UniProtKB/TrEMBL annotation:
<dbReference type="InterPro" id="IPR023753">
    <property type="entry name" value="FAD/NAD-binding_dom"/>
</dbReference>
<dbReference type="GO" id="GO:0070221">
    <property type="term" value="P:sulfide oxidation, using sulfide:quinone oxidoreductase"/>
</dbReference>
<feature type="domain" description="FAD/NAD(P)-binding">
    <location>
        <begin position="51"/>
        <end position="169"/>
    </location>
</feature>
<protein>
    <submittedName>
        <fullName>NAD(P)/FAD-dependent oxidoreductase</fullName>
    </submittedName>
</protein>
<dbReference type="GO" id="GO:0070224">
    <property type="term" value="F:sulfide:quinone oxidoreductase activity"/>
</dbReference>
<dbReference type="GO" id="GO:0071949">
    <property type="term" value="F:FAD binding"/>
</dbReference>
<dbReference type="Pfam" id="PF07992">
    <property type="entry name" value="Pyr_redox_2"/>
</dbReference>
<dbReference type="InterPro" id="IPR015904">
    <property type="entry name" value="Sulphide_quinone_reductase"/>
</dbReference>
<dbReference type="InterPro" id="IPR036188">
    <property type="entry name" value="FAD/NAD-bd_sf"/>
</dbReference>
């Protein structure tokens, strides 16, 4: 679009070489389609009865809706979703790095919700009443159901960081690619972060700015996004012959839980001038005016006990203050507030579904899809797509009073952008790495960049959201 990086033209006009590479990608996409259609396609042949209510209007909800309509003859479906605008959230990262325009990431839920066939209530659920099979809307109205699908996604809790107000994001060197409002269909964090990239570049022309990136220890949607922002902004400066002092402060213990990818990311970091990693650092507060971030560094230390003459592990929690000129914040996240008061969450605070069947463990007529699910693996659109067929098959089994057969294998995907033009396509499931293609999965590749930038959105729009893939 705007520049040439690593010999790859980032332009709306494809070079001949890039076009050829993309043509090379087409069989890849075709094989994805073929490999999935065999296992996920259901004929609209199921003759089952019962009122299904879907709560949510994002990736998981629309995928569930489309798949149910493809599977059940004349289904009785109500969807409760306040938003007509549907944000293709993975592309917030591309907008934030100047590779897409903000207009490119908005879709229209009217294209997927046919109100001649589906009852669409444009409101929010304020209360879940699973003991009497109903939900209460913000308007006060109660809606009953026979079967419920919870697809309310995840909520960003910026206010848990003391000293930070949402309005501060975009001022005083603060950005956050995650900032969006799904109800009103805005993704201001994406454009704010692209401005932030450019402010950073301007600042780096006169001195090396201190740039801090944070990640909480709570589960977040797209766990790789904090590092995507680190590497893309560092690469943006590198391409201009500039640099900064980078600090990546994460609540986690490593860059990635899969050792091969973790090693590759450490290698990636060497591309950039100097990145200091601070692990197990939990952001507590920020002093917006004075540009100081305070973390709790929680760790265990081996201490020698002279009485018993043994080493023992002692938990420590130190306060650490880091000065910065620019900060990219990834907020702590949780399910939406209306779920917090319900009886539907597990002891970790997420929707208590079985990790294989996606059925609620205590309320057998309730299923989950997408980020809200309390399952061990990633919160991504890629997971939601794999939840879809499992959920539909198992829900139909419940409606037919049959045993549940479909199993979710934990699949998730994280396209880790290590620089402009390169992605590590980290695909894994409950058992470990699960690459779709027989390539070394930990290697950063141009082909994945092109796939993510040019092909995934059309696949999402035309195939995933319509339940074809
Ligand atoms: C910056 C960023 C980068 C990402 N990158 C990737 C990526 O590269 N690859 C990938 O696969 N995924 C990525 N994701 C994650 C992906 O977008 C989510 O995992 C996916 O959208 C989850 O779908 P969902 O349906 O669970 O939630 P969402 O799509 O977020 O939808 C939740 C819906 O629920 C609605 N809702 C909330 N509360 C209520 C209520 N009480 N009543 C009714 N409706 C309600 C909201 O309005 C919204 O429509 C990224 C996300 C972000 C933010």
């Amino acid at each position: 679009m705007k520049k040439t990086v690593q010999g790859v033209k980032m332009s709306n006009k494809l070079s001949r070489r890039d076009a050829l590479k993309l043509i090379g990608l087409s069989p890849v996409a075709a094989s994805v389609l073929l490999s999935s259609s065999a296992t996920t396609q259901l004929e609209a042949s199921e003759d089952v009865e019962g009122k299904i209510v879907i709560v949510g209007g994002g990736s998981g909800a629309i995928m569930a809706l489309s798949r149910l309509q493809r599977a059940i003859k004349n289904p009785d479906i109500t969807i409760i979703a306040p938003n007509e605008v549907h944000i293709y959230q993975p592309a917030q990262v591309f907008v934030a790095s100047g590779e897409m325009e903000i207009e490119d990431i908005f879709l229209d839920n009217n294209d997927y919700i046919d109100t001649d066939k589906v009852n669409w209530i444009k409101d929010e659920v304020s209360k879940f009443n699973p003991d009497n099979n109903s939900v209460t809307l913000r308007s006060g109205e109660k809606i009953g159901y026979d079967y419920l699908i919870v697809a309310t996604g995840i909520q960003s809790n910026y206010e848990e960081i003391k000293g930070l107000k949402k309005e501060d994001i975009g001022t005083n060197g603060i950005s956050s690619v995650y900032l969006n409002d799904l109800e009103y269909g805005t993704a201001q964090g994406a454009t704010i972060t692209w401005d932030w990239f450019n402010d950073l570049k301007t600042a780096a022309k006169t001195k090396k700015p201190k740039v801090l990136y944070t990640q909480p220890s709570s589960p977040i949607k797209c766990g790789g996004a904090p590092q995507k922002m680190l590497y893309l902004s560092a690469d943006y400066l590198k391409e201009a012959g500039l640099s900064a002092e980078y600090t990546f402060a994460t609540g986690l213990k490593s860059l990635f839980h899969l050792p091969k990818i973790d090693q590759e990311l450490h290698k990636t970091q060497k591309r950039y001038d100097k990145i200091e990693n601070r692990f197990q650092h939990h952001l507590q507060s920020i002093d917006v005016k004075n540009k100081k971030a305070t973390f709790i560094h929680a760790y265990e230390e081996e201490v020698y006990d002279e009485d018993f003459e043994i080493y023992e592990k002692v938990s420590r929690a130190d306060e650490v203050v880091i000065d910065y000129d620019f900060i990219h914040i990834t907020p702590p996240m949780s399910p939406v507030d209306s779920l917090k008061d319900s009886n539907l969450l597990d002891n970790m605070g997420w929707l208590e579904v079985d990790q294989y069947s996606l059925q609620h463990k205590r309320y057998k007529n309730i299923f989950g899809i997408g980020d809200v699910c309390g399952i061990p693996m990633g919160k991504t659109g890629g997971s939601a797509r794999h939840h879809g067929p499992v959920l539909v098959e198992n829900l139909i089994s419940v409606m037919k009073n049959e045993n549940l057969k479909a199993k979710f294998d934990g699949y998730t995907v994280c396209p880790l952008k290590t620089q402009y033009g390169k992605i590590i396509m980290a695909e894994f499931n409950y058992k470990g790495p699960a690459p779709t293609f027989p390539l070394d999965f930990e290697k950063p590749r141009w082909i994945w960049w092109a796939f993510d930038l040019y092909m995934l959105k059309p696949m999402y729009k035309y195939l995933m959201l319509t339940g074809r893939f």
